[in-house]
Design a protein that fits this description.
393 residues, alpha/beta, two-stranded parallel sheet, binds pyridoxal-5'-phosphate
Length: 393
Amino acid sequence: MAHKPVPELKPVPRLLMGPGPINAYPQVLRAMSVQLLGQFDPQFRRYMAETSALYRQVFRTRNRQTLMVDGTARAGIEAALVSLIEPGDKVLVAVFGRFGHLLAEIASRCGAVVRTIETPWGTVFEPEAIERAVKKHRPKLVATCQGDTSTTMAQPLAEIGRICARYGAFSYVDATATLGGMPLPVARWGLDVVSAGLQKCLGGPSGIAPMTISDRAAAAIYRRRHIEQGLQKKGYRPGRGPRIRSNYFDLAMIMDYWSEQALNHHTEATTMLYAARECARLLLAEGLEHAFARHAAASRLVLAGLRELELEPYGDLAHKMPNVTGVWIPQGVDGERVRHRMLERHNIEIGTSFGPLHGKIWRIGAMGANARPAAVRRTFAALRQVLRGERRR
Ligand SMILES: Cc1ncc(COP(=O)(O)O)c(C=O)c1O
């Protein structure tokens, strides 16, 4: 039987104005078409070192251990948690949306005794509430998101590192949704481990997770260093701590792999490393402060667009992420039909949300390459038309 040939990829271009992914910068796509290199080629090792150095600037830290975990942002979360948590450790998770629940779930899969504090969706925590919980539970690790895309809220983090240090806990922050879009000075805020993805404010595809690890956290992880059999050299002594329960996400091994000794682990996702390097290079060439201001300006434009359409923004606006805005779907409007029409008639993607907010809010993202007036205006022109049709029904 003759098979119909499958054509080359040629999707209708979409403007991605949801909570991520978003359209990648053309320079990032170009970097991804650069030919592969072997992972131990000195040229490639130099690109790895450059990528570490660039992300030190993005995270505003001098952490030696600033590296990439291959896999989507969730891979960064899993690597951080499985490497920090020893079974039986107490972990406190501050949950203000779906991704906080994800942290709690992953921590419990790592064998942690998980304690959570929750605040109603659409709000964030006062630092005192987190401090009270840390004081009560005395966890080894406190985990939270900076921005929880499900609710579009951003948790203030300036105090969190200090609170954790005061009670001898490590801090972990999931900055997938915010890195590059709002300030996250890791050293100044004293955060231990922070991970992210490229597909939001950094303007790249998902598939690699930039991460930074404080010396103190790196030492705790390194205590659990166990080199694979077949790679061990004479005289090797494993770390005293229990072996990390994942091979792929073992940060002790990943740190060795990124170190000068270049101890073999996985085959680096070359193309994703090129993308990560280009995202950071572009962000730093623009300037972090400029990029934050651009995201904040796009956010104001989104809010102005909502006012014009008499749509109500969702949640506590004082703590809204600058790059994603939640919008209540008006009574009598079929939110999914609107999203469908935005996509099919206008080639624009916007999001809905999860769990209790599914079908109740839309989420409009203006981030990375799309945190620009032209992209926001095009989105609102289309939304105006689609809503006019809906309201006539
Ligand atoms: C805050 C947050 N954390 C984690 C993730 C998971 O990222 P990924 O889908 O790249 O694994 C997302 C994705 O939207 C997110 O918004």
